[in-house]
Write a structure and sequence with these properties.
The chain is built from 15 helices and 9 strands. An 8-stranded antiparallel barrel has the order 1-2-3-4-5-6-7-9. Helix 5 crosses helix 7. It is elongated. The chain starts with a helix and ends in a 13-residue tail after the last strand. The relative contact order is 0.07.
Amino acid sequence: MDPEAVLATFRKEWQRELEGAQVQRGLCNESMQQSPSKATEVSPNLPKGSLKALQSSPKKDVDSDSVGANISEAGENKDYGEPDVDSSAHMEEVTPDVETKAAELFKKAVELEQSGRLYEAIQFYRRAMTLVPDIEFRVHHQNVLEWNENYTGQGERDDSASEDELDHEEIQDLVLRFQALASSSQAVCIPQFDQEAPHISCLPPEMLECIMHWVVGSDLDMRSLEQVSRVCQGFYLVARNPELWHKACLRIWGLSCGVPGAYGSWRNMFIQRPHPRYNGCYISRTTYFRSGESSFQDENYQPWHLVQYYRYLRFFPDGIVTMLTTADEPQVVVSQLRTRDVRNPQVLQGHYHILGSGLSLVLKRRSRERQINRRKGRRYRGGTTDVAETVFQIEYEIRPVKDRLHWQLVWRTYSIISVYYDDKQNISQIDVNDTSKFPPLIFSRVKSYTLTSDNPLT
């Protein structure tokens, strides 16, 4: 016979006995009051199995005045294949020793069931519920009390606090403490309030880890992972899984990520090692004055124009980068850079490489005439310009801003390579030392970039 079917049948029978206890309690109590010395005899008017239902009922549903005799039936425990047990221990007040013994048997049964040894688990379940019929509810209630007691006194962190502000030693202490609590409660998390619908704690740990992979996603939304870890101690442990952070490091640095080494853990490497941020844009604003043309009516009047434009950089974990230089405000532009496929022809797309604390970018822009000719399948026949392709080579240095890591990109070098149709090239080196013309780019988080996750972290 299938062990799982046997276990399910046993639980259903036990549940029916508990539900029938309330119906049969009055008849049994009346019979016990009339003849206390013969309390062990079953009244012929009672339906078959009523005594079993009476003994299976919780202690709070039994009248204490009617319980004066030791109720023991030889055939009661023989149905379960267990020795006879004095049921007065759970018909009256259950002694602490009996409840402790029943709790140990119940927890042993849980361990056996989780390990796949269902036949042995059934025996331990029966022995535990023979001692205390409602041991399952008692153990659950005790676990909730212990969890609330351990959780009380731990201050809640501010939601606006950055994950970079967590102290390394405190994190290690929390991990060890939560692991000890999880091993004692034998559950990832415990529902705070009773509910009829299934709780997320019913899911196996493997399923929760899969959910965390979707939370991070292919765009490495580690900030959302940190927010999920604040739900409870179980989610904290799942979110601190070293394998999860190892995959995130491999996605950024590839095989060159090496080992944690001085960082101590993969999570610390991801947080502290220089790399661009992916849940937003790096934005800079450049402002300068330009002289205008004098009016033909008044040659003494010299107009001046205030020119202001923005430069946007969006990085993706797979090495793709997009750049846009425009006069439009960030509220209008950031939504256009959400995906890699941008329809705006002014957006430059290329690749980047992380070199220590520096970033090396290569972006290309093809002439529109060359693109039209390529679509029509013909050679170049002349046009308004001789430049076939423009290559932008840029190097930045990743720097922190106060306690915010990887928050600023400072210009190092900037060169423009113009490739002509006759394969000749012209290289122009741009001086980036003037910070008024080439100000640093500051990171700005964009919430719409992390609203959905298209693919899980792999």
